[in-house]
Write a structure and sequence with these properties.
Oligomer: single chain
Largest sheet: 3 strands, antiparallel
Number of helices: 0
Number of domains: 1
Structural class: mainly beta
Length: 55
Amino acid sequence: MWKCRACGLEIAFRAETLKIDEVGPFFICMGCGHRNALVNVGGERIALARPVELR
């Protein structure tokens, strides 16, 4: 799940398309429109089955 840092809305990975610009990868919250930079909040205990692919 992606979580908006402004309003706290949790968004399913498949529901939102990641984007990338000169600042880095991000998604736009469907609820409030906030631009959310991707940050690692899980630490080392969360391992993805495969890397996140940005297109």
